[in-house]
Design goal:
Blueprint lengths: L1 H32 L8 H13 L3 H20 L1 H24 L8 H21 L7 H11 L4 H20 L2 H24 L3 E7 L3 H12 L3 E7 L6 E10 L3 H11 L4 E7 L23 H16 L1
Antiparallel strand pairs: 1-3, 1-4, 2-3
């Protein structure tokens, strides 16, 4: 019973944040970008083009195209994707329909200021929705279908689609500045969405080669309160055995780790790499939804996997 309540709360929290994220995106688009008559990526951009050509409200055309794409995607990408997208696709049309008439005049008389603020707000909204497993539909649906039928990644297909939508605005309205503003918004939305998605998961991985590896590992355990993994290696030139320390820490803890290494062995060979996510004890919880009826691999499949791993090692 407690487990079901926990799952219910996590799901409810996800939908609350997805709704807030989509509302923020719709506000940024309706209040700052749309009044400047700038065509951006996604179905919001397509809806903008349709509005200025026919007068059909953006929310109406956006919802209609989303539903048509979802019906097409049902057979290609499956029921799970469609059900997970239909909520976001519906809510974004609702919020755009509410906000667009309220902010017809915009907030400032500076076009670049408006599209900058709008791009930042849209990116924050999309990022918030993505963090909680949400999707606003649009180019996401096109990209998902294309990735099923070709080797093009979802991210690259979304980029291609958005570039085509924004570029088409020049051929329709012949405003170079508006097209450039559209690409500025595309960059800001992508950057801010990535920032929101990756901010909480930023971590650092240290790989340390040192003769004083025991002292360094002890100091990291005691002073930085981080664990170390000791790996066995061999220097190819010297043919001597070496010990390698692998350390994961938060980005803000990287300076502490560096100081510990330098104070013990200034000649240590160290590499430092940023990683987007570290999950497990002492770090973040792996937040993914697991299907209730997930088939377990049979013993035959497990045996084959084990054989493949052993064969790779022998090579």
């Amino acid at each position: 019973m407690a487990l079901s309540k926990t799952k219910l709360w996590v799901t409810a929290k996800d939908y609350i944040f997805i709704t807030l994220g989509i509302a923020l995106y719709a506000f940024g688009f309706s209040a700052f970008i749309f009044p400047e008559k700038v065509v951006i990526g996604g179905l919001a951009g397509v809806g903008t083009i349709i509005y200025f050509l026919t007068g059909i409200p953006v929310a109406v055309s956006q919802f209609g195209i989303n539903m048509a794409l979802l019906m097409m995607a049902y057979r290609i990408v499956g029921k799970q994707f469609v059900l997970g997208t239909i909520y976001g696709a519906t809510m974004i049309s609702v919020f755009v329909g509410i906000f667009t008439p309220l902010f017809e005049g915009g907030f400032t008389n500076e076009p670049f200021m408006n599209i900058t603020i709008g791009g930042v707000l849209c990116g924050l909204g999309i990022g918030t929705a993505f963090v909680h497993n949400g999707s606003s539909g649009g180019t996401d649906i096109i990209a998902a279908m294309a990735s099923k039928k070709s080797n093009v990644s979802i991210g690259r297909m979304m980029l291609y689609t958005d570039v085509v939508i924004i570029s088409s605005s020049f051929f329709l309205f012949h405003h170079l500045d508006k097209m450039v503003f559209g690409f500025v918004v595309l960059f800001l939305v992508s950057y801010m969405a990535d920032l929101v998605v990756n901010t909480n998961r930023q971590a650092v991985q240290f790989t340390i080669f040192s003769r004083h590896w025991q002292e360094i590992a002890t100091a990291i355990n005691n002073d930085a309160h981080r664990g170390c993994t000791v790996l066995n290696g061999m220097g190819f030139y010297s043919k001597g055995e070496v010990k390698i320390l692998l350390v994961m820490c938060r980005k803000i803890e990287s300076v502490t780790i560096s100081r510990i290494i330098k104070s013990i062995d200034p000649d240590a060979f160290v590499t430092q790499a940023n990683v987007n996510g570290v999950y497990g004890k002492g770090f973040d919880e792996l937040k993914v939804k697991i299907a209730s009826t997930h088939p377990k691999p049979s013993s035959t499949i497990q045996d084959n996997i084990a054989k493949d791993v052993l064969a790779d090692r022998r090579r």
